[in-house]
Amino acid sequence: MALVTGAGRGIGRATARRLSEHGLRVALLARDRTQLDETAAECAGPSLVLPADVTDPDRVDAAFTEVERVWGPVEVLVANAGGGHSARLDRTTDADWQRMLDLNLTAPFRCLRRAVPAMRASGWGRAVVVASIAAQIGEPYVAAYTASKHGVLGLVRSAAAELARSGVTVNAVCPAYVDSPMTDATVATIAATSGRSPQEARQILERKQPIGRLIAPDEVADAIWFCIANAAVTGQAINVDGGTVQ
Fold it and tell me: Lowest CB count within 10 Å: 38, 90, 101, 157, which one?
């Protein structure tokens, strides 16, 4: 069975659908119960709705405990929940910095730490963290976000090395700009700060990618499934970026 964080929309919803199509029971974790219920309705098989904030360690532990009570240990973890922040470096506050680390780095770490013992004990497990191409390159105005994503890629690589002989794989999937609510927020920020229309702002992001369009959530879900299906793939950062990072 699988647990997907950030499962209420975007990449998380597409991933939950994909795992369900492949016959996995899927536990859905996010803050918004209404969105989780919508995701559950789109799943082909059994699902379990778990409203929780991934930055709250007690709620995360309780969610894992509930999954274990109902279905048994988590075999596939997709740590997808995340968020962004854009500001000049000198205008990035301590609170901005800490929020990015808590959401994009510490939360996946806690989920991995909670899931790994049962995976190791059974001799099989899959963990995939949805990172970003910001885990591999630096761009202006996203210092806190980029630092958190660089950090989570380091976590993935270290965990993969530690678990390589255990039957457990750990990988990162690194999307560029995805046609998702997170990108919608980025478009709104660009429009508000630049005076461009939302359509013009979206085109700016589309043109940053060599394929000339945003990535579809289902294309990210395909890469996540590849990491789950292939036992020889571990410690990798799989780019889903339309050729942005080569």
Answer: 90
